[in-house]
Amino acid sequence: MATINIKQSVQVPNTMVSNNKPDVKLLYFHLRGRAEPCRLLLAYAGLAYEDERIPPPWEDPEGWAARKPTIAFGVLPVLYWNGEEISQALAAGRFLAKEFGLAGKNDIESAQIDEIVCAIEDAVNARISFLLEKDENRKKTLVETFQTRLVPTLLGQLEKRLIVRGGQFFVGNNLTWADLQAFMFLTELDQAALKNSPKLANLVERVGQIPNIKKWVQSRPDTPV
Asked: What percent of the chain stands above pLDDT 70?
């Protein structure tokens, strides 16, 4: 099975990582997908890591079928941190957020972050469902539901949460994993969808201007999703 290996290192003056740099690898398909929140977290922290990418299942079904049984839960991404393996996208993202100081200052803030992340994850799952759907009629229905019902409802809910919590960031008036997760999801949408959500649109703009986030977005491999 062909493997695409990309080593991406970006630096920021206020890196969250000590001089004792960990050995890090992120394994995922050659897509943004479920691994992109982890990549955004790693980019923000300025941490050098190995970005190992393999062809998605529809490009190399035999290769994925052979590799899948070797992965703990049979799903990607998998984060490798100093030899330890962390499977499941949200578990890996939460771990990185804690390492980089983006997981909240107390249990309440951590729960508020999880609230936003989980709400967005529901929408991510819905999007992946229609992207993978093979029946064209069902796919059309899923896309229409996503675009006309799920997305407008979620954007309204997120906009209200953002306003209630100060209008700048989702939790604690500071950048957290929740804001990066929102940035990831919202930038995958047609930006016209944000026309009635000015606070969200502003958040996307501000997060996108963070030097390391901006550098990663500009330099990351071009993939369809």
From this structure: 92
